[in-house]
Structure formats: structure tokens, C-alpha cells
Amino acid sequence: MTQDPNVEAQVAPTEVGANAAEAGDRAVMTEPHDAYSDHEVITPHAVDGHVASRLDPDAPAVLEVEDLKMYFPVKSSGLVRRTIGHVQAVDGISFQVPKGGSLGLVGESGCGKSTTGRLITRLYQPTGGSMMFEGQDLAKLSNREMKPLRRDVQMIFQDPYTSLNPRHTVGAIVGAPLAVHGVVPKNKILSRVQELLEVVGLNPEHYNRYPNEFSGGQRQRIGIARALTLNPKLLVADEPVSALDVSIQAQVINLLQDLQKEFDIAFLFIAHDLAVVRHFCPEVAVMYLGKIVEIADRETLYSKPYHPYTQALLSAVPDVKQAAIGGRRERIRLEGDVPSPINPPSGCRFRTRCSLAQEICAKVEPPLLQIGPRHKVACHFAGELGQHPVAPVTAGLLGVDDHGSPTSSGPAATPLTSGPGYEKEWFDVKSRQMTSGAAG
Amino acid sequence: MSDSSPLQLSDRPPEAEGHLLQVEDLHVDFHTRDGVAHAINGVDLHLDAGETLAVLGESGSGKSVTAQAIMGILDMPPAAIPTGRILFRGQDLLTMPDEERRAVRGPGIAMIFQDALSSLNPVFPVGWQIGEMFRVHRGLNRSDARSAAVRLMERVNIPAAKQRVNAYPHQFSGGMRQRIMIAMAIALEPSILIADEPTTALDVTVQAQVMDLLGQLREESGMSLILITHDLGVVADIADRIAVMYAGSIVESAGVHDLYRRPGHPYTEGLLQSIPRLDMKGEELFAIKGLPPNLLRMPEGCPFHPRCHRVRDVCRVDEPALREVRPGRRSKCHFAEEVLDE
């Protein structure tokens, strides 16, 4: 397979596809198909290395998101539907996705992770902020200006049962982007579709079947084929495996990893399953109520999380290994539910469920502070589990005392990192000094 | 309905073997337009008082159908139970008259479902729905039923139960709705609670809360729990024994720690290897190839052989039996010892 499948589509022989479609081999469709025995899933890729992408700290960012906001208006009932409030679904998040890499976005339902995905694919128009993709701000483009860029930013949806039109054949679904964008001549569309079906491990001869003839895992493969059609540079995968059975999940994850390697696609991988995200993404951001509370490389986030929410989230994941040795792990229990995003708590949004919360947390919102070479956290009492500091680490930087009241000295001169990327210098939580790592 | 149920459950002498629930050679067929689908092919299960059994399987493995057959809520037709016995305290539920069977549901065996929102009636307050249990089965009047509902809501840790007893299901979050379902199920203090994917639609933090609650209620009341799930991780903390189902049969059953330490069937082996784990460096993920078989057209021999990574010639022609391979462990594989010893 070449790096650019579009190029190959033009040289590949086309008679299989075009003729079969014209002949209208409808007989195939009247027969009852059997999703289970009929559609052999073929694996065209080498079985040996399904390897997740690694973290390349020097890779240029393909997407830089800064201070992204999405507020959905809440309307009053009645004749005059006034706006009476806003759901702050995403409230000022910044991150970057490196070229060919993957960033995981995890959090509970309602934390804004899916909204973020839909903002990046511009299914929603953001309320504020910027999303820089190849020198252009996706947030500011009109729908017409957006169209050429949609080739580069594609999406895989969660539910393979509702994201495919039941009345369209697989060929029509996968081929639609080609027709819309006029990438390949009409008579070549079919051969490209068949090629794509083969890439995702489906039988290329099944292009004229309907989605209901496929199983869940196979439908997800169709969704993946559709997303790949235009050779995207960035794929937003919104819970791509959560609707699938365990044994099928592994197949789809391996497929996504193979495709990423083969076509050098960057992923924004949205999921609630922390284990899947750890497996797939070298870098992970944790969201809570519209904010990123912690973002770090995989090793740091999973072994040494600094935010109490990340710690609680990780401890809630059921542990198969513990069961094997007969142990039961201590859990950090989070009480209650996520508060309403219409009227989020003041200061730190997590404070209502946080065991560390103090006065300062209600008064001042903790900034997303860089505390390591690739580690940012938004907590006044950031620290490893069981070693959270007694006094807020952020007080000096924000110009407040330990209870959150403003002091006379004002905020520190050192800039608080809130951009999408990482700085060379960061704030060391233990010494409470700026450091570059080389000295300490 | 009067409060004296026609079946005095507690008066019944326990079965000689002592199993609270025993399922023997259960078969369930579904008659469809395309033929007969054998959803369950000879399931044997037993459950003792106070025990927690997890039934693990993918969609279509027959785990939910087994639960529905035990509960007696299968739609017949299209479903049919050609053979099998389901003994509850020694009484065969399948041959019981409907009237008696209805009396078992609730005080004997109760069930909670995966999707709490669609299992609750949207037009009645939750307190009314929980109280219905007491009104119908115990003949309590409305106000007594209501205060009983409040007590139950407190028992399942719903905050401000008194204020929220008149709230409607849509006013509760997913985790709270599942608690309401649990409250309804435990209202009549059942001996067995069947939980069909109780946490699948929930977030991990809420999932942990609900599983803790189930564990706590089990400790308090001494009821037995049948936990039906597709998630290997969820059951690890709470179950005593696990039965793994595949294509309508139990392929392996074992104590939970034994099973996780060393699976005794290639399917379980594949499942355990195919889940990404938090503690795993996990660069390579093992995937079980292919798809579960179509129940209308089961493969010859072992139903798992087309997907098995240990398949041999004998597997293609000869279906293995579920047999005891170690004390307390059963596996439905010709080469179970090999899987275990490796």
C-alpha cells in the first residue's frame, strides 16, 4: 500500500468495480445475507506489529487548540424563548495534537469531550477560542471555506448502528466523500471504495450490501473506511470501540493502530475507557465539566497523576490483575454526580466532590499549570496520591494567600502557561520555583 | 392482591443438595423466520445462598436469555424451552403454574436491567413505582408504601430521599436511576438478585459506586447475586465464581481468582489477553479472530473452533463436553489441561 491511496486509485484497474455496478448485480442483495459466516473479516496487514504510536516530543503539532469554548444557550419555555443561561460544555481548553501522534481525551459523560471532538470537526461553531490547523483557524472559517479542510479532518462516530444510513449501500456510504469533493473521476470511485474496504479488512465485493447485513464490528470498520476515504491528516475518533464486544474491540483498536502507522494520521481519541486510551495514546488529557484538569504523557498520567480527579478516576477502573492475585484495591470513592454545567461551582469545578477542597478552591480557579516537561495540572493542591501539599502551591503565582484572598503583592511575574504546547521551563511543585529540569 | 402469597417460600425445606438455584440442561430456542436459533444449548448452573455468580459473555452468547429464562420473562413464542429444569429451592420453575411462579418473582428472585431509564415508567414518580412492590405484594396502603419507598431509597444511598420520592425518573442521573431500579428489586428482600449488565451504561466512577452498593446490600441481606456482564473487570471485585458463556453454552466455570490467574478455555484465554489493561505496558493487543457464530448455523464440532488459536482436527468434528478439569473448575475444551498447564 502506498502512502497516498488516491494516487494508487488512478492507476489501479477499475473494471471490477464499474462494470459490476452497471450490471447492477442486484441478485446478491435479495438473498438473505448472513453477517456472521458470510462476511469474512480479512486482515491484510502484517499480524506482527500492532503497535501504538509513540510519543515524539519534537513532532510538529498538526492541531493547536487554544482557549476553546462552546456555550449552548438554554432557552426559557413559552412563546418568547429567551436565553436564560448557558451550558458551558467546553470552557477554555487548550491542547495540541502532534503530527501522526494521538492525544486521548478522557472523562465522565457530560464533561465535554464529545463536544470538543465535534468542535474540531466543526459540526458545532465554537463560541470562542482558536483551533489552528495547517496555518488556518478552523474556528473562524465559514462553512464554504471549511469544505476543502474537511478532507483533512474526519471523524469516526461511536455508534456503528446509527451513524450509517440504513438505506445506502456500503459503497455509497464510503464513496460519498469522493463524490462530494470530486477527488477521483466518477468511474474510479468504486475501485477506490473497494480498495478502502480491503484496507479496513472487509470483503471488497460487499460494496453493494446494506449496513444491516454487517455485524457491529464490521459496521465500525465501514465507518472507519468512510473516515479514511479522503486521506485525512487528523481523525477525531469519538468512542470508536465502546459499543463493541470485548473480542471485537481488540480487532478494531489494532486496525486503527495499523492505519495510523500506514497513513501517518493524527488521532484525537475520545473515550471513557481509561485502559483503551492508555493502550492507544502516548499523551492523555483528562476533562472534568468542560475543563482540562490534567494533561500529560501516558507514563506520567497513569503512574503519577497529580490531580485528585485523575487519581479517583484511575482507582475506579476495575482491575483484572488484582483479581488474579486475590487482592482488592483500595478505591477513592467519589461521592455524588457531576454538577450541572449550566451553573458550575465557583473556583475549581471539581471542589464539590474533592476530598482536598479548601477555602481557596471555592474562591480562585486553579490555572492549568505546567509542572513537568510534559505534564500540566489544574489543582491548588497538586501532588502525588497521598502526598498532596498542605498549603496551596498556586497561591504565590496567583497573588492570593492560602485562603484565596488577594494579597498586596499581586500575582507573580512569571507567566502561567496556558497555551496549547509545553514550555522549556515549568513550575516545580515541590520547590515552588520555575525550573527547566536540567538544574533539578 | 392479598399479602398472603400462595407460596410460602420460607417454609419450604431446602433441597437435599443444598443449592438455592439449580439450572439443569437448559435449552432455549427462538423460532424465527429463517429457522430455529438455539440461543441456549444445555446450560448447567448452580447458586448457593449468599454466593455471587458472574455470567460473562459477549452479545449473543445467551447470558441474558439464561437470566430471562430463570426469571420467567421470555416471550414465548418466539422463545421455547424444549428441555431443562430450573430448580429454585427444589421446585421446578418451568413446570410451576403461572400463579405460583409470579409469587416467586419479587420475594424469591428479582432482577435489575441494564437500561434503567427505559425500565422505569416515565409518567409515574419513582416513589410510586418503588411503593408498587409493597402495595401489590404486601398489600400496604399508599402512605405506608410511600414511607417504605423512602426507606428503600435511603438504603440505596439516594441523597434527600424524602424530597425526591415524588420526582420522576428523568429528574435523576443515570447512576441514581440504577439505584432506583436496585431499590425496586430488593424491595421484597429476594433470595436471588439477577443483575443484567447493571453498570454498562454508566461512567467508571458511578459504576464503582453501583457495584459497591450491590456488594454492600449482599453483605447486609445475605442474598445471592447473579451478575450478568460482558466486562471482565467489573466482576473481578465482587464475584465468587464465574461462568463464561459462548454461543449458548457455558465454556468455562471457575472461582474468580482461579479464572483470572489461569484461564482453562481458549476463549477465556483470548478474552483476558484482548483487553487493554491499566497495569499493562500493552503495546500489542491480542485479538480473537473472526466473529461469534450465527446461532442459526452453528459450526460443526466445537462452536468456538473457527476462532480458536489452538484448534486441532478433533475440534472440527467433535463437540467437547463441559467437564471437570480441576477441582471446582469446569471447561468445555478438548485440550483444557493443555491450556491450564501452559
Structure explained in plain terms:
With 440 residues, chain A is an alpha/beta fold. Chain A has two domains: 13-73 and 85-288, Rossmann fold; 345-436, no CATH class. Chain A is built from 15 helices and 14 strands. Chain A has helices at residues 5-11, 15-23, 27-30, 113-120, 143-150, 170-181, 189-199, 216-228, 246-263, 274-280, 298-303, 308-316, 320-325, 359-363, 395-398; strands spanning 61-75, 83-98, 102-106, 128-133, 136-137, 153-156, 234-238, 266-270, 283-288, 291-297, 369-372, 375-377, 426-428, 433-435. In chain A, strands 6-7-8-3-9-10-12-11 form an eight-stranded mixed beta sheet, sandwiched between helices. A four-stranded antiparallel beta sheet of chain A has the order 2-1-4-5. A two-stranded antiparallel sheet of chain A has the order 13-14. The longest helix of chain A has 18 residues, at 246-263. Chain A is globular, with a radius of gyration of 24 Å. Residues 1-48 of chain A have low confidence and may be disordered. Chain B has 342 residues and is α/β, with parallel strands linked by helices. Chain B has helices spanning 63-71, 98-104, 116-119, 126-138, 142-155, 161-164, 174-186, 204-221, 232-236, 256-261, 266-274, 313-317, 336-341, and strands spanning 21-32, 35-47, 52-56, 79-80, 85-88, 91-92, 109-112, 192-196, 224-229, 241-246, 249-255, 323-326, 329-331. Chain B has an eight-stranded mixed beta sheet with strand order 7-8-9-3-10-11-13-12, sandwiched between helices. In chain B, strands 1, 2, 4, 5 and 6 form a five-stranded antiparallel beta sheet that branches. In chain B, helix 4 packs across helix 5, helix 4 (126-138) runs parallel beside helix 7 and helix 7 (174-186) runs parallel beside helix 8. The relative contact order of chain B is 0.13. Mean pLDDT of chain B is 83; it is low at 1-16. The interface between A and B is large, with 56 and 54 residues.
List the helices and strands and how they pair.
The complex is a heterodimer of chains A (440) and B (342).
Chain A: H1 5-11, H2 15-23, H3 27-30, E1 61-75, E2 83-98, E3 102-106, H4 113-120, E4 128-133, E5 136-137, H5 143-150, E6 153-156, H6 170-181, H7 189-199, H8 216-228, E7 234-238, H9 246-263, E8 266-270, H10 274-280, E9 283-288, E10 291-297, H11 298-303, H12 308-316, H13 320-325, H14 359-363, E11 369-372, E12 375-377, H15 395-398, E13 426-428, E14 433-435
Parallel strand pairs in A: 3-8, 3-9, 6-7, 7-8
Antiparallel strand pairs in A: 1-2, 1-4, 4-5, 9-10, 10-12, 11-12, 13-14
Chain B: E1 21-32, E2 35-47, E3 52-56, H1 63-71, E4 79-80, E5 85-88, E6 91-92, H2 98-104, E7 109-112, H3 116-119, H4 126-138, H5 142-155, H6 161-164, H7 174-186, E8 192-196, H8 204-221, E9 224-229, H9 232-236, E10 241-246, E11 249-255, H10 256-261, H11 266-274, H12 313-317, E12 323-326, E13 329-331, H13 336-341
Parallel strand pairs in B: 3-9, 3-10, 7-8, 8-9
Antiparallel strand pairs in B: 1-2, 1-4, 1-5, 5-6, 10-11, 11-13, 12-13
